[in-house]
Amino acid sequence: MNIGEWIFKRALTCPQRPFLKDEGRAYTNREFNARVNRTARALAALDVKKGERVAVLMVNASEFLEIFFACAKTGAVIVPINFKLTLPEIRYIIRDAAPRALIYSAQFAEKAEGLKAVATAVRHYLKQGGDKLTGDPLLSDFTARFADEEPVPAAELTLQDPLVIMYTSGTTGDPKGAVLSHENFLFGAIHSLIGYGIDHTCKSLVIAPLFHIGALAASATPVIYTGGSLVLKSFDNPSEVVQLISSEKINYMFAVPVMFDMMAKTSAWEAADFSHVNFFIAGGACMPVPLIRKYQEEKGVRFAQGYAMTETLRLTSLDLDDAIRKAGSVGKEVFHTHLRIVDDGGRDVPAGELGEIVVKGPTVFSTYWNKAPETQAAFRDGWFHTGDLGKRDREGFLYIVGRKIDMIISSGENIYSAEVERAIESVPQVAAAAAVGMPDPRRGEVVAAFVLLKEGAATTEEELIEALREKIAHFKIPKKVVFVKNLPRNSAGKILKRKLRASLVSGSTPG
Description:
Blueprint: H1 4-13, E1 18-22, E2 25-28, H2 29-45, E3 53-57, H3 62-74, E4 77-80, H4 87-97, E5 101-105, H5 109-115, E6 124-128, H6 139-143, E7 162-169, E8 175-181, H7 182-196, E9 203-206, H8 213-226, E10 229-232, H9 238-247, E11 252-255, H10 257-264, E12 279-282, H11 289-299, E13 303-309, E14 313-318, E15 332-333, E16 338-342, E17 355-360, E18 367-368, H12 372-378, E19 379-380, E20 383-392, E21 398-403, E22 407-410, E23 413-416, H13 417-425, E24 430-440, E25 444-453, H14 461-468, E26 480-483, H15 497-506
Helix pairs in contact: 1-2, 2-3, 7-8, 9-10
């Protein structure tokens, strides 16, 4: 059974059961399946065949999931795009993925226009929402032309067929498209059933953006698989989210720690009723223990946590009962995943010793799109090398210690330092730059930049940050800029980022 058939089966077995609510709209299983079928037939009319890509630049909306499942039913591949990215960053993804169609929310019309001159592979542009705006055809008008009967795939679909290309930052600084299959999402859902016991009574609030693997693979697809229902909402107003949890009697939600922190600081927090909440899931960074305790003591809400990557979906789970006792751990590996911690020679290390985390299993991606050398480097003897350093305690609980790949994770967003450094070094006054992760109590990490100016050049922190706003997404922009006379390097000329991080703690100025 491919992922698209989930929707057909739900419509067949429980047609009137609620499926989704979205900003005043509500659909039953039967109604949602009909919408998916019309979308699938619409894509076929655009000559989107099996294996061809459909890019989406969209906010959380029913149409996002309709496109996801339409692709699943027909064999097309959806390419979710982070709408926080700047136009040059989006252009790179569009050129790399070469989608046949781009579907975008109306508020991103300007970015869509900016792609048309360079995205030669894109043959069709469709707009979601913004009915009164001129420009590209409305998705709703286009799909309404088609029948809602089940589409018949032109070619056989299997669980190994690709379903999603989700872009993540790469070791070269350019994004890499992780190709995720139907099987990856199936076993991701199975792990949620085994680990958390969710079932058809589950009502999930989807507030993390659906372009993110956490929202798609934790908030949405496991609940759909079990027969539960979804409420879609963008995280624009934390107070409204708190009120929505109460009014809709939400019992399950995935978010990054900074979202939970913002919710707990709203005026709606004190009066909010969370008695119906089974548990929340935190991802993207470790939940601070004081925040866990606040939710548990003031609202009776417990947290499940874990360790996941775009390339692998969820790898570990920290159970509800261990959230405080094992604070700092990401738990133990999920049922169908094999996880090892190895030294540089690929040998398993004893409990308590540091090594690289390597994994294999049915949730691990197959390849990086158009990047065979990077794929080959990531897999050795069938094991995916995560680039993360970790250790296990004697009870088997995993702790993430650092990253071999120099990645910064801020509020669940992956930021590769090379991307930031390249943007900074494009500023005329800059000779060299180094970006590192700086601890932040709300976001886990934020970017700090150490900048060496050209001889005789001058600029300020404010001017440099302003110059970056059109070059990289706002979450990649440094929150602190330190101007230095020299950048510490080893004998091979490599910048010693360990010393730079240490200087942030000590308050000293390197170089």
